[in-house]
Structure formats: structure tokens, C-alpha cells
Amino acid sequence: MRRPVVVGLAAVIGLIAADTTTAHVIATPAFLPSKSSASIVLSVPNERDDPMTGFSVTTTDGLEIHHADAVEGWTGQVGGLTASWTGGSLAPDAEVSFGVTLKADADPGVLQLQAEQSYDDGAVVRWPVSITVTPPAESSSQSLALAAVVALLGVLTVVAVAMLAWRRRSAKTLQEK
Description:
There is one protein chain. By secondary structure, the protein is of the alpha+beta class. The chain folds into two domains: 2-134, Uncharacterised protein YcnI-like PF07987, DUF1775 (Immunoglobulin-like, Sandwich), CATH 2.60.40.2230; 142-177. It has helices spanning 2-17, 140-176; strands spanning 26-28, 31-33, 36-45, 52-58, 63-68, 75-79, 82-90, 95-104, 109-119, 124-134. It has a six-stranded mixed β-sheet, covered by helices on one side.
């Protein structure tokens, strides 16, 4: 049961460590277990006054792009370490979501993807996107056991708070008499 706790802690640390103040392209979820594949959604806002006409994301060593999801109005393709979408247009102050399936072969830690937005005036804006690789996922029975322990702790906490409130109310009632 120790490894699920490590996985959870690594995910929390990765979320805390991720600097979202400079990340205008946001990955959800922002973590991926090592030695597995998962779908990641990249929320991409157009923060410029010109229409965005292209988007790409490039991975680093330890991450592979297996698939780029279709997005209405955009043509997506995967080539090497890059997934790209072209042919669409995103108005200023609008947002679009692009999905990719990533496979992590890296050791646990934070990896940086490079997102690139292209605009009809020829401008290109680049953003780092953090993905936290967590330890490999455990079997579902271990995950279920961890969930049961967490639920039990939650129930015990609620019972303890209720008992304290009851005792305080009883003590207050006795003092008033």
C-alpha cells in the first residue's frame, strides 16, 4: 500500500511545483504514470488580438505522442515528437481544447512540453507546459485499498469532529444550569 501513497504525493507535489502563472496553455490532467499512456487535454486560449491559425505541442525525451484527437475545424497530425493542428481559426479571447495521447517512458519527475501558437499575421508564441510523470500505477486492488483507507480516515474525522461538538455543547449546557 506504500506505492499508492507515493503516487498520490508525487501528483500533489507536481501540481504544486507546476508554475501556472506563466503557463497560458494548461494540460489536464497535468500528470501521467510512468510506463503508461493517457489522454491529456491542452486548453489553449487566444490571448492576442489576431486569430490563431495553428497550434503544436512538442514532447521531450521520455514522452511519446501516440495520437492527436480530432478537433472540429482543425486538421491534426502527429509527426515524430510533435502533434500539430492547422486549418482552423480561433478568434481573440476564445479558447479551444486539443487532446493528445501521451506515453511516458521517463522516470518520475516534471517534464516540459513546448506549446506553440501560430497567428495569421505570422507571429508565433511559445509556452512551456509541465507534465509530471508519477511512479508506475499499481493494480486496481491496491488503489481500491488506498481509497478504502482514505474513506475510513474521512469517516473517523467526521465522527471525531461531531463528538467534540457534542461534548462542547453538553459542557456548555451543564455550565448554564
